[in-house]
Amino acid sequence: MPQGYSELQGPGLVVSARPGNQAASGTAKQQTQTTGADSDKVLLMIRYLSTLLVIPCCLLAQGNGDELRHRETANRLAGTQWAAAARYFCSSEEEVAATLPSATVKDVVGQYEEPTRLFDNLYFIGTKGVATFALTTPEGIILIDAGYPDQVETTLIAGMKKVGLNPADIKYAIITHGHVDHYGGAWFLQEHYGTHVALSAVDWDLIAPKPGKKAEDTPPRRDVVAVEGKPIVLGGTEVIPVMTPGHTPGSMGLIFPVKEGGVTHMAGLFGSQILSAGKRVPVETFREYVRSINHFAEISRERKVDVELQNHPLMDDLFVRMAALRSRKPGEPNPMVVGAAAYGNYLNVMSECMEAHISQREVKQ
To answer: Which of the listed ranges 26-30, 164-168, 328-332 does the model predict with the highest average pLDDT?
Structure first.
């Protein structure tokens, strides 16, 4: 407090007052002074008024408190490793709009990413916004997602050939959820290579042609129904579906082994991220999504997942790790292996940010 000030303090309110300048003529003693009783009345009035002012403020703070707590937890869990993920997942609908695949799909040059072998049996094929992964086995290839229908030949097929993979070897295409940027190329694979397409039962229903409604794309023919915990097996390699409803009713995450130099790691792909916490999406959908993240995190812990993958790699620094992978020296660790604890942190960052969005929406309602 600056010299010459006195302080009156009520609940939630501080009032500071400075005495007026006293006349040098010696008339200060004649100034009117507030009596002790008057001071008490003033204090009581200040305290009463301060409660009227502070109650709405406190309620607002309490309403935002949960949101801030979730954001702080997300940032703490993220550390430096997942800082980009925390920023992205905790951002508003408006802040991420320009990064969404729907906004960047026509930017063919800007979205290009070099097809890359990530492990002895896993390849990245796709764009910066929409990734597909080719998992090789002794009996053929398991493809995870199939990309947009108008990019299947220019991106998927061309990318596979560039890294020495034969598209005719694709025996399964596992589609993580029923949106066209993931299942769009599956019909082409069925028609040209006889690929079996796997999708959850609910999302098979979601993409099925509807009577009286003109289809904007050609969905694959209904084929393999993926079931929670029932592995899809090819050449001794098991891909385990985990149901994660929220983004779509039948969204799935996948867990599968990847290998390098005789060492096996477990990869987790949470294939159904909600990239934008849109205001039109019901809060209950967000709550279901959080339950799905937590469910996938539990299964991931049990399976000791230590490799993080995304089919929308907009926030997980995948391309930073891929660049490091291309330039690594013999004997250096594979930067795609993040560790089980770090993978758990990544999923928890997703969950905490969505909890923050839920808290924000609940305060506004």
So the answer is: 164-168
Helix, strand, coil percentages in the chain from 3-state DSSP, rounded to 5: 45, 20, 35
Residue, of 49 and 286, whose pLDDT is higher: 286
Write out the residue range of the structural domain in which residue 251 sits: 67-364
Q: What is the pLDDT of residues 292-321, one digit of tens each?
A: 999 999 999 999 999 999 999 999 999 999
Side-chain half-sphere CA neighbours of 187 within 13 A: 14
Q: Does 197 reside within a domain?
A: yes
Type of residue found at 207: I
Closest CA to 48 of 15, 10, 14, 16: 10
Token reading at 257: 């082994």
Structure tokens at 253: 């995450």
Number of domains in the chain: 1
Name the residue type at position 332.
Answer: E
**Is residue 191 a contact partner of residue 222, using CB atoms and an 8 Å limit?**
no
Within 8 A by CB and 6+ apart from 223, the residues are 190, 196, 197, 198, 199
pTM of the model: 0.81
Q: Which residue has the tokens 């393999």?
A: 224
**Residues 6 or more apart from 142 whose CB is under 8 A from it?**
134, 135, 170, 171, 172, 173, 174, 232, 234, 237, 239, 256
* pLDDT score, position 365: 62
Assigned domain for 45 exists: no
Radius of gyration, alpha carbons of the chain = 29
Which residues are within 8 A (CB) of 307 and not within 5 positions of it... i.e. 6 or more apart? 119, 258, 265, 266, 267, 268, 336, 337, 338, 343
Residue 243 inside a domain? The answer is yes
For residue 37, is it within any domain? no
CATH number of the domain where residue 150 is located = 3.60.15.10
Which band of pLDDT confidence, cut at 50, 70 and 90, is reported for residue 215?
Answer: low
